[in-house]
Amino acid sequence: MEFLVRPKNSPQVALSDVGRALGLPVQELNVCGATAVSGVSADNRRIRPGDVFIARRGAKVHAATFAREAIAAGARAVVTDAEGAHIIGDADVPVLVVGDPARSAGVAAAAVYGNPAAQLTAFGVTGTNGKTSTAFMIDHILRKLGRTTGLIGTVAVRIGDLELASTLTTPQPADLQAMLATLVENGGTDLVMEVSSHALAQGRTEPMRFDVAGFTNLTHDHLDYHGTLEEYFAAKATLFDSDHCERAVVLVDDDAGQRLYDTLATERPGAAVSLSVTGLDADWSVTELRAEGAVQRFTLAGPGGSLETCTQLAGMFNVANAALAIIMVCEAGIPLAQIGQALGQEGVSPVIPGRMEVVGDKPYTVVDFAHNTDALDKAMVALHGVRPGKLIVVTGSAGERDREKRPQMAAAVARHADHLIVTDDDPHGEDPAQIRREVITGIPDGFSWEEIPDRAEAIHGAIRQAGDDDVVLIAGRGHETIQDVAGVDVEIDDRVIARDALARRKVDGT
């Protein structure tokens, strides 16, 4: 069970106030009586005395099945649906019945913890690729400005100075509200959060309204969950309606971004600004881009003025991420000149685990999370010209996920690289050999490739065969340290393995 956090000082709140927040009619509030509550949990194993237990239907069983255990552990009330209420039957605590317990969990938790999001300036970032990098960049800027921040996302969860395990890009609703309350309790001023399409579809951020929301891009991914690109787009677009954000910044360099901005310009005039780094007509633009060694310098110009700055992260996509981050902070009311002064000569250059992370120089070895075609394309383009030699790519594809992208990943490598090593990613419950076969179907005739199933061996093989002037890109897993093989967790960290392979190469003199 993951370690989560709660505020140390959680006052007693009348259950009737929670019921009102949930929109229950007055006559149904009578069941609350004088009950007072101090926490919320959707996991009966984490119930503390005074909690509200959220009982919703899961993939296999309704959580109301565990209501008795939750009550025995100290739960003072249960929020569930009609099915759950029937399962529970007579109970020793109030049972509040709502239409959708999953979506009600955040509302209940916000009511218990004093609506902590309203006491923070909240930034939300969504898109297929770039969420993590942009979130880290916003956080970097805010901390340079002297703010006390919380960062929640795929790679890290940090509440002030407290680091927590990250198990979901966007936490479950009750856990999220507890994190925000803890941040407020510790003097937090700002929240920076990745908002996944899954979270938006499931209402995990409810009832939050972000001060500024940002959109990076939308490409072919997660169709195993959403079904179609249209449904995927609709889930992302939810973040930008008037219920979920005050201001919006939209990168319009792909069709989805332009469509989203056009919709907002019509439906919410003045609520959104656009950004382009490719020369399209937009409110904000990036100009005068130039590389100085590993540093990318650029000028950002728009309604808030202009700023000359830089990023030390490779790739045009990281210039876009940096520009988006700067504008989002600017849209929160911080002048562009003040942002520029805080950034200084370093620019927007946070260390982001597993995102174009350089782990070696000879060969130039990079570990990146790129796990779809668009991200892989951009990572390889970013590495062109870094070294004069070949580009060798190690990648695979995850099981029980969007199968259409498997051959597309291999085809992308063939467009940009010199050699591909097909290996395993997270097979989950699928046959790893079948996943690799589907990846291999995308390799065109005549392209150089090999298949090495064991990921560690594949990484060692790539670094062993590379020349000093070559580039090795290890793609797909980035910061991740656990590989799911048929339900068994296998510890594996691409960065650790790559460093070991580089050390052996040095010893062997290859």
Throw out a few tags for this protein.
single chain; 510 residues; alpha/beta; Udp-n-acetylmuramoylalanyl-d-glutamate--2,6- Diaminopimelate Ligase, Chain: A, domain 1; UDP-N-acetylmuramoyl-L-alanine:D-glutamate ligase; Protein-Tyrosine Phosphatase, Chain A; 3 domains; 17 helices; globular
Please provide a written account of the structure.
Its cofactor is Mg(2+). The modification N6-carboxylysine is found at residue 236. It is found in: Cytoplasm. Its EC number is 6.3.2.-. By secondary structure, this protein is of the alpha/beta class. The protein has three domains: 13-113, Udp-n-acetylmuramoylalanyl-d-glutamate--2,6- Diaminopimelate Ligase, Chain: A, domain 1 (3-Layer(aba) Sandwich), CATH 3.40.1390; 116-343, Mur-like, catalytic domain (UDP-N-acetylmuramoyl-L-alanine:D-glutamate ligase, 3-Layer(aba) Sandwich); 357-504, Mur ligase, C-terminal domain (Protein-Tyrosine Phosphatase, Chain A, Alpha-Beta Complex). The chain is built from 17 helices and 25 strands. Strand 20 (391-395), helix 14 and strand 21 form a beta-alpha-beta unit. The model has no long low-confidence stretch (mean pLDDT 93).
